[in-house]
């Protein structure tokens, strides 16, 4: 029997009972462990008492709106859990605005069950939350540039000893840059590698995520700049080659 501790927990925040139940069935059938919240206020309480691997979030919620809950998750609770927005609002302005606020992906209603599962699977894969057999002594690396250290296995970013919460896409962009410090990545190249063929085609999507990374790093280390813009081409790590340290994860 599968240990439920190994099954990703997904919080569904949707006030429409029929849609909430449908999403719950879809995720259970796909092998996930869904939990339901029918308002932003209820979801906030659940997030305060338990941990989740992903949140599916509607915007038009009673009490606390989806936008307010997302702001609470990122700024007050300081959680880096990936958030998939599922909303009838589908304009470019809505999508970009939610990305700026820390959402990881955006899917409009009506939706196809297969696409919901694909988006969930992709987000969990990007944040490293997949079922594993747990090999003993697994080797991994840490990359350090000045006051910044990135741990790929744990998907953790530290600046001056303080953990910096990044979304799944933000982490993937930073990891690409720090792994290949001499390479300049075009916006198109970053989009293809991070979004794997993607869901939005606008260049602004990459710009928004790079801007978010810069703001978060600058808040923790205002005297340093870690991402350089190469005008007319794209982005690269702001120089000085990173140190690579080998780490070893102990057997569980």
Explain what this protein looks like in three dimensions.
The protein has about 250 residues and is of the alpha/beta class. The chain has helices spanning about 15-30, 40-50, 65-75, 90-100, 115-125, 170-180, 185-195, 205-220; strands spanning about 10-15, 35, 55, 85, 105-110, 140-145, 150, 155-160, 160-165, 185, 225-230, 235, 245-250. It has two domains: about 5-125, Rossmann fold, CATH 3.40.50.2300; about 140-250, Winged helix-like DNA-binding domain superfamily/Winged helix DNA-binding domain (Arc Repressor Mutant, subunit A), CATH 1.10.10. About 40% of the residues lie in helices and about 25% in strands. Strand 4, helix 4 and strand 5 (about 105-110) form a beta-alpha-beta unit. The longest helix has 18 residues, at about 205-220.
Topology:
Layout: E1 9-13, H1 17-29, E2 33-37, H2 40-49, E3 54-57, H3 66-76, E4 83-87, H4 92-100, E5 105-108, H5 113-126, E6 138-145, E7 148-151, E8 156-159, E9 162-163, H6 168-179, E10 185-186, H7 187-195, H8 203-220, E11 227-230, E12 234-237, E13 243-249
Parallel strand pairs: 1-2, 1-3, 3-4, 4-5
Antiparallel strand pairs: 6-7, 6-13, 7-8, 8-9, 10-12, 11-12
Helix pairs in contact: 2-3, 6-8, 7-8
């Amino acid at each position: 029997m599968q240990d439920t501790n190994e099954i990703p927990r997904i919080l569904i925040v949707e006030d429409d009972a029929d849609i909430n139940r449908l999403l719950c069935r879809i995720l259970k059938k796909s092998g996930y462990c869904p939990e339901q919240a029918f308002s932003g206020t209820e979801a906030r309480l659940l997030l305060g008492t338990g941990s989740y691997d992903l949140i599916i979030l509607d915007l038009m919620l009673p009490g606390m709106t989806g936008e307010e809950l997302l702001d609470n998750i990122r700024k007050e609770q300081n959680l880096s859990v990936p958030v998939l927005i599922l909303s009838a609002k589908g304009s470019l302005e809505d999508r970009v605005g939610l990305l700026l606020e820390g959402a990881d992906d955006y899917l409009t209603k009506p939706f196809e069950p297969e696409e919901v599962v694909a988006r969930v699977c992709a987000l969990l894969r990007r944040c490293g939350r997949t079922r594993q057999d747990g090999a003993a002594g697994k080797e991994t690396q840490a990359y350090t540039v000045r006051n910044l250290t990135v741990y790929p296995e744990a998907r953790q970013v530290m600046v001056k000893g303080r953990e910096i919460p990044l979304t799944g896409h933000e982490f993937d962009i930073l990891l690409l840059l720090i792994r290949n410090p001499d390479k300049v990545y075009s916006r198109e190249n970053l989009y293809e590698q991070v979004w794997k063929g993607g869901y939005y085609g606008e260049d602004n999507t990459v710009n928004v995520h790079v801007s978010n990374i810069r703001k978060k790093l600058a808040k923790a280390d205002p005297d340093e700049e870690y991402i350089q813009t190469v005008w007319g081409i794209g982005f690269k790590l702001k120089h000085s080659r990173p140190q690579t340290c080998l780490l070893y994860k102990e057997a569980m």
